[in-house]
Design goal:
Helices cover 54% and strands 17% of the residues. The protein is of the alpha+beta class and 857 residues long. The longest helix is centred in the middle third of the chain and has 37 residues, at 353-389.
Length: 857
């Protein structure tokens, strides 16, 4: 079976054959990734320095505003401090910066209390809070979750870019993930380590809405707005620029809060725009892929947004989410970019489709476990365990949660995976049964047209597609045969009409692309992948004309033979990995079946050409070497060195006048059978019959590669002529018994170059030789029909050969020089010789006599 190369992950490290713009883009991608890694390392290194460090029991930013980061057991959180409370004094000392606070903390032992003056809204309150030691658990809750979230965002963005590099969609998604990653990773620095990353945080926070808004313009499908106003995609970045400049300038002055409020509003607006484009695509889009993408993302949004969507806004205005730290509450948000990531790469990432689906399932389960943990902590622990167990509730809670996880995780996980599978349209048909049906449909079919029709119908039936077709290349004609069948072609006439309308050139850009790529290509690849920018217009138009969504190349023995093109699924869903695996199998089986059908057709052509003219051994040898002999399903023209033999009967007209027509025909057929058998016994091929004349070739169809082989052909031709002479003696004896006049035969033999090949139409082919050698042999046979030589008194056959043939005979035959002959249609004279017989039948004196003059009968 022909192997179709599997869909492979693009090699983003390869810059070969990339245009300069893409090389710059790839370099920028690696630069951004490196910047994120450096930022993560810096933040992690500085955060680790906080472990075992005394701190106030709460965190503040450079403006001395209390952070939203902090678990419930921190003394500051228990004292009621929360964002955006502002700490003014500590132990009576005014606090201008975080360094002032650190000096106060260092002056008291761990656990010692510090009195704070705090501005809470319009009130000024005094509160006493014990200091604490920053533990590894605190490190994980405050920084670790942000780091993990940032790494996951970055990982999702990088994976999407790696799988679909250089596209506008993947760039927008990558940048949005990177900005979110930087925001999460640097968030801890803003309220603890203060190494100066707040400027980077502001930049990422301000430009994240811009790339999200840009993403909404190109995904799930390209907005019509960009069609009429292509520069509209620049507008979001201009807005971010206008916001980030005053934000950077005003901070830490309170005036920056007004600008930051607009940044938050811009963030919500961009997210709303993205959700709006997704909802619109799910309802109104004519694109199957866009609708499928939209449904996947809406499912992800439904899981991701309920808890964390309002967290930043609630925190900004001083609220909280049931005591759950905001960084923990934001973990489910990962589901949303994960669903977008899947939707972006879904349509051509069929080989890893199942792993992405599993990953989505794992992400969902992680979110469920995390959400469940904090929900149980808030509800079960507070409402049930604390009243029942009192102080022991803190120890009992982890055990209760572990038991619930053990018993509930697997059933919930299976249910979640089932929902994901249903959402992502996992095929429900039996793959093995479908392959069996395809195999049964094309097995033992050797008619190429019927085979193609069966393949198309089977694919349409098994995958429920509206249209499918096959385009086959004809190398000999440099043309294509295209057969497409759709729902509208309900009759054979309609299907034939469709076939006539689909005129595809041999050098069609889509065929050239598939031959080069050697993998499945979808219409969405053509529309979105910048690597196909140069062929986007012609290939997109061809996809549209074919009514196809995807196309697979057909290969036989590593030779590109055509494509299998598939339309839209009637369900409105896009193709799943299982569908693609089935199509790959079908394309392989189809390639093999087409190759077998063509091979059968070629063998039939050769059978018709040679079955009555060559021995079975020669026919088998020709077939075994068909790759050298055939071109485009028929014998290719070849320049060969061949010995050509012509025969004709003298006196046959007189005989035919005395015989009954039926008897004459029977005699002539018997004569031809005997002569043909002699030809085949001597390794010749009967080229043609002309009444009672015969044309024979020695040295075809397989080319002779050595002088010895050419010499053997000349030897065989002369031996064949002498065997015909012996047969004529027997035939004349029968003629005499029947009272009919005897017949004589003329034979002309000449050796030299010819052009051998097939002539005629596709329905009526004839293998023959042409050239000067053929003409010379014919003229030798017909030269001076009344010419007689001494040996003809006892022999009924005159055999004239040219000097070129004589040179190959090595004196194995007795010959008589006839002389320099002027043949009809030849400017130069030909030296001719008459073959008397085999050398062992004549004395040396006769063999040496080469000058006997011609005599006229």
């Amino acid at each position: 079976m022909a192997n179709l190369p599997r869909t492979t992950v693009p090699n983003i490290f390869s810059f070969e054959e990339l245009p300069k713009s893409l090389v710059i883009g790839r370099s920028l991608f690696f630069g951004i990734s490196l910047l994120f890694l450096i930022t993560s390392v810096i933040c992690t290194w500085n955060a680790l320095k906080w472990v075992d460090k005394p701190f106030a029991g709460f965190l503040v930013n450079e403006r001395m505003v209390v952070s939203y980061l902090g678990p419930t057991h921190w003394t500051g959180v228990q004292a009621g401090l929360k964002f955006p409370d502002k700490v003014l004094k500590a132990n009576g000392r005014s606090l201008i910066s975080t360094r002032d606070l650190e000096k106060v903390i260092a002056s008291v032992p761990v656990g010692g209390t510090i009195s704070y003056s705090v501005q809470k809204g319009e009130q000024l309150i005094e509160v006493t809070i014990p200091t604490m030691r920053f533990s590894w658990m605190d490190f994980w809750v405050t920084f670790g979750t942000g780091l993990l979230t940032g790494l996951l965002y970055a990982f999702i963005g990088v994976v999407v870019f790696a799988l679909k590099p250089d596209t506008t969609v993947s760039w927008s998604f990558l940048l949005s993930c990177m900005f979110l990653s930087i925001s999460n990773v640097t968030a801890f620095d803003l309220v603890s380590t203060h190494v100066g990353l707040i400027r980077l945080y502001f930049f990422a926070t301000t430009f994240c809405p811009a790339v999200v808004l840009h993403l909404s313009l190109v995904f799930p499908e390209k907005s019509k707005l960009l069609k009429y106003y292509p520069n509209a995609k620049v507008t979001p970045y201009l807005l971010s620029t206008l916001l980030v400049i005053p934000l950077e300038l005003f901070y830490p002055d309170p005036k920056f809060l007004t600008v930051y409020s607009w940044v938050l509003f811009y963030t919500v607006a961009s997210a709303t725009a993205l959700l709006g484009s997704i909802v619109y695509a799910s309802v109104k889009s004519a694109s199957v892929l866009a609708r499928t993408r939209a449904k996947v993302i809406l499912f992800g949004a439904a899981l991701a947004f309920p808890i964390p969507a309002a967290a930043p806004i609630v925190s900004f205005w001083g609220g909280s989410l049931a005591g759950v730290p905001i960084d923990i509450a934001e973990l489910p948000l990962l589901i949303f970019p994960a669903s977008i990531a899947y939707a972006i790469v879904k349509h051509n990432l069929f080989d890893v489709d199942q792993y992405i689906k599993r990953t989505v399932g794992y992400v969902i389960m992680t979110a469920i476990v995390a959400t469940g943990y904090f929900a149980l902590e808030t509800v079960v622990k507070t409402a049930i365990l604390d009243p029942l167990l009192g102080s022991s509730a803190e120890k009992a809670y982890p055990i209760v949660f572990a038991l619930l996880t053990v018993f509930a995780f697997n059933p919930v996980s299976l249910r979640v995976q089932a929902v994901v599978d249903k959402l992502f349209y996992r095929a429900q048909y039996d793959y093995k049964a479908a392959v069996t049906k395809v195999s049964d449909a094309i097995t033992s079919i050797f008619d190429l047209n019927e085979l193609v029709r069966q393949v198309i119908e089977t694919v349409r039936k098994e995958l429920f597609v509206d249209q499918a077709g096959v385009v086959l290349l004809d190398d000999r004609k440099k043309a294509c045969q295209a057969v497409f069948i759709g729902d509208e072609a309900v009759t054979a006439e309609a299907a034939q009409q469709m076939k006539r309308e689909l005129c595809i050139a041999y050098d069609d850009p889509l065929l050239a692309l598939l031959a080069k790529e050697k993998k499945l290509v979808t219409i969405y690849d053509i529309e979105e992948d910048p690597l196909y920018a140069s062929v986007r217009e012609p290939c997109g138009r061809r996809f549209s004309e074919l009514g196809a969504t995807l196309a697979l190349p057909l290969y036989a023995h590593d030779e590109f033979t055509g494509i299998l093109a598939i339309g839209h699924k009637k369900s409105g869903h896009f193709y799943t990995r299982e569908d693609i695996e089935l199509l790959k199998t079908v394309s392989g089986m189809t390639s093999t079946a087409i190759e077998q059908a063509r091979e059968k057709g070629q063998k039939e052509i050769m059978r018709k050409l040679f079955e009555k003219h060559v021995s079975p051994e020669v026919a088998e040898a020709v077939w075994q070497q068909r790759e050298l002999f055939l071109e485009g399903g028929r014998p290719r023209s070849q320049k060969l060195t061949v010995t050509v033999l012509f025969t004709d009967l003298k006196g046959f007209s007189t005989v035919s006048e005395k015989m009954d027509p039926q008897a004459l025909m029977d005699w002539l057929n018997g004569y031809m059978d005997k002569m043909t058998k002699i030809v085949m016994d001597h390794g010749g091929i009967v080229d043609d019959y002309f009444g009672d004349a015969i044309k024979v070739n020695f040295g075809v169809p397989l080319p002779r590669k050595t002088e010895a082989e050419i010499r053997q052909d000349a030897f065989n031709a002369v031996n064949c002529a002498l065997a015909m002479d012996e047969e004529m003696v027997r035939l004349n004896r029968v003629m005499m018994e029947q009272g009919l006049p005897m017949l004589r035969m003329r034979v002309g033999i000449y050796t030299g170059p010819v052009v051998a090949g097939s002539l005629g139409s596709a329905d009526r082919l004839k293998y023959t030789t042409i050239g000067d050698t053929v003409n010379t042999a014919s003229r030798l046979e017909s030269f001076d029909k009344d010419l007689t030589l001494p040996h003809l008194e006892t022999s009924p056959c005159r055999i004239l050969i040219g000097e070129t043939t004589l040179r190959y005979l090595d004196e194995q035959f007795a010959t008589q020089k006839v002389g320099e002959l002027s043949l009809k249609g030849k400017d130069e004279k030909i030296t001719a010789y008459c073959v008397l017989g085999r050398a062992d039948q004549y004395s040396p004196g006769v063999l040496s006599d080469q000058k006997s003059p011609m005599r006229q009968a």
